[in-house]
């Protein structure tokens, strides 16, 4: 064991002993077994000693020996990395780049036995939280980690605030807990270069979420391209995605660059991914796995670097069971999923959305009009609400939106229920009125026919069997006569 490692282990033993006899505060509120720390050092003695210290502090720890460890270990998300810069056959700075692909929020504690000013400056330039020169103490490591975790927390909160404000600027509006959770999830997954599935009914804002993921990702300066898989002609989808060469098919008068090519370095949003034909799903899987594709009619292998964000209002798991969506593609796409609730399940967002769509402080919505908007089920979700508010602005001359304005635009009628005005959708209102009138009509017929079905059905000009079914439906009492059903 090297003198420094022996010194560090002795300090650790002393720290552990004093803790056991109660001379050092446990500071349990600072320990978190969910915190994952990666220790990358070519010295086994140093790795073992550091891991012992960190395990004593209740952290989750993974040792990494660049010479023998599986590189896939670097893909495990981590919070703090203790990184030796000078290691045989490995550049610590390049190792950091690989780790950051999968743990963009990781804080780095750089350690070295060969310090110099240029090395320190370079470590600080790449965002290292702490630079420690060997030998260092167990206490220095302990408090360097606490400082790194605190910095990570502050940076995450800062990004959440930025996403919250920025998302509303992009159009992700809502004051409900659900929307706050959506914005927080975007802040967490946007920095990760993984595919994202956005699920939800039509009109819930899936494209807005996808754009937010792009805007707050490292690819924000790249292109954001939207492709509606359901809107493209079946025979042209492959050409639109991957491009084609001149003469590849009838009508291919010149070479075309596909979306994967023009979006290189950016984000490709595939809307209605469930409508992508099975034969193209396998090609998409190849791009996701290898970043490789061919233009239609070409054998040249091309490479692209895009992040896939896709949206669907279909149940992809049900489609997998039916065999209309590939399981391997589903699991490859679902790096993370964001599910948007329909507007009818988050009605607290409606007043906020209405004020946002009005975009003019001179407009006001009277309370019963706002209640009517909140009582409506919005089958078209936010898209329908936005169009409704736009129409309300057009019919509202005084800039005061009333219940009558809302009723007229939504095509609903107002009925009285125990003195309270209740808005009913037009079809529901019509069916209710007709049902009451129809029941009264058949009741009158039976009374006029003294309860005789045969006579009443003749008066109504109806088949006796159908007339009987109506009486059963409306639960109207009658008396059977010979020949009745």
**Number of folding domains?**
3
Query: Outline, from the CA principal axes?
Result: elongated
Report the oligomer: single chain
CATH homology superfamily of the largest domain: P-loop containing nucleotide triphosphate hydrolases
Helical proportion? 40-55%
CATH architecture of the largest domain: 3-Layer(aba) Sandwich
Q: Biggest β-sheet, characterized?
A: 5 strands, parallel
Estimated share of beta-strand residues = 15-25%
CATH class term of the largest domain:
Alpha Beta
Low-confidence stretches: 10-30
- Whole-number mean pLDDT: 81
The termini sit apart by 101 Å
Strand order of the largest sheet: 2-1-3-6-7
Using DSSP, what is the number of strands? 18
Computed CA radius of gyration, to the nearest angstrom: 33 Å
If helices are DSSP runs of H or I spanning 4 or more residues, what is the number of helices?
19
CATH topology of the largest domain: Rossmann fold
Structural class: alpha/beta
Report on this model:
Strands 2-1-3-6-7 form a five-stranded parallel sheet, with helices on both faces. A five-stranded parallel sheet has the order 9-10-13-8-14, with helices on one face. The protein has a two-stranded antiparallel sheet with strand order 4-5. It starts with a helix and ends in an 11-residue tail after the last helix. The chain is built from 19 helices and 18 strands. It has 485 residues and is of the alpha/beta class. 47% of the residues lie in helices and 15% in strands. The protein folds into three domains: 153 residues, 3-Layer(aba) Sandwich (Rossmann fold), CATH 3.40.50; 171 residues, P-loop containing nucleotide triphosphate hydrolases (Rossmann fold); 67 residues, Helicase, Ruva Protein, domain 3, CATH 1.10.8.60. Helix 10 crosses helix 12, helix 13 crosses helix 15 and helix 14 packs parallel to helix 16. The radius of gyration is 33 Å and the shape is elongated.
